[in-house]
Amino acid sequence: MAADLVDYKIREECEVLHMTDKQIKEIMSRLHANIVKGLGKDTNASATVKCFITYIQDLPNGKERGKFLALDLGGTNFRVLIINLGENHFDMQSKIYAIPNHIMTGTGVALFDHIAECLANFMKEHEVYEERLALGFTFSFPLQQLGLTKGILERWTKGFSCSGVVGEDVVQGLKDAIARRGDVQIDICAILNDTTGTLMSCAWKNHNCKIGLIVGTGSNACYVEKTENCELFEGEPDKPNLLINTEWGAFGDDGALDFVRTEFDRDVDQNSINPGKQIQEKMISGMYLGELVRLALVKFTKMGLLFGGQGSDLLFKQGYFYTKYVSEIESDKPGDYTSCMEVLEDLGLSHASEADMAAVRHVCERVSRRAAHLVSAGIATLLNKMNEPHVTVGIDGSVYRFHPHFHTLMTEKIAQLVRPGIQFDLMLSEDGSGRGAALVAAVACRQSQQL
């Protein structure tokens, strides 16, 4: 077996990345307690898992009709979409616009003016410049919602630092920018984040979809909760369900995950732009998995267990072992190291032996397996809390989408962790947050027409 090539000392060192079933059960119990805390009026302030109210109480039912705009802002570029919903079909056209660095770090006014200008140009291109359209706004930054169209930015992430926006309503910021132009008519019907968009997008196709999950650059989940359990909700109490955005990336910020964290996790955290924050996310998501692998490889090289003790400049440089390398290395068949060899050559490690390559693959597998198990523990916690017989989990994000074994690892682990009798499916979201935003707008319009 190729696996026997891996030095037993490296195997021993990698044991810290293995979570036992007992540890996983403890994580689930702590996460559940944190979610309950986040939902409680008196306990929310001290909860790390904030469980933000989304004010979305209805999922798509397939009867949504019409033309809708969507705006998807979540990183260094944003997407504008126009969606035409008909009976069991929809057509969608979209365009990606860049956000220049000086705007990401400039004023909020400049950011929203830039977005409004792109929206107007998009409407011209699609010949709807004269029409009045409803828009759903996906805003993938930590947001406290005070209503379906009111969201206060808690803090910027992902390299943004626009002034004058934190603590303010971002919907108002965009409305003001559209009003300053005065040339287009857009009604912002809803603000949501990418996790909620993923759930809504999948629910349009599959009415069992009641959990949305992102495992990409970051990680987060949302789920359908009983309205009576949401003590912070101040909307109409007559509807039984309410979508909750957990913001679970911050689980562990209070030390709840310290018992499974390693020296590599602590190193990643200390050298990040937000030390002490988003602890669970740093063990799961694409922004950090490659760096966790790199730190382990550096340690083993310095111990003389890898590459004959000879590293390279790039191996010793923070951020240069990309998460996509992990997916590529694990895509090779057992005993084949073609991709691994290419990655190591890119890093200036062409002197690696076959045993080195087997060891690198072993480290990648340990890190990604742990990530998949942590995500599975979270999803199983939500499934057990909801206690419904059959739930579909809508999933998006580069790690889930491109890692060759993530889906299988999750399916196996969740099945072990859910209560007997609970069935689940994992569904890849095809065009997640953009279509989801338009669907939230469509559902909001459907309701206002019914009133």
Automatic annotation (TrEMBL):
GO terms for cellular component: cytosol; mitochondrion. InterPro entries: ATPase_NBD, Hexokinase, Hexokinase_BS, Hexokinase_C, Hexokinase_N. GO terms for molecular function: ATP binding; D-glucose binding; fructokinase activity; glucokinase activity. One of its GO terms (biological process) is glycolytic process. Residues 10-204 form the Hexokinase N-terminal domain. Residues 210-443 form the Hexokinase C-terminal domain. Coiled coil: none annotated. Keywords: ATP-binding, Glycolysis, Kinase, Nucleotide-binding, Transferase. Pathway: Carbohydrate metabolism; hexose metabolism; Carbohydrate degradation; glycolysis; D-glyceraldehyde 3-phosphate and glycerone phosphate from D-glucose: step 1/4. It holds the Pfam family Hexokinase_2. The keyword Transferase applies. It is an enzyme of class 2 (transferase). Its EC number is 2.7.1.-. Catalyzes the phosphorylation of various hexoses to hexose 6-phosphate. This is Phosphotransferase. It comes from Arctia plantaginis (Wood tiger moth).
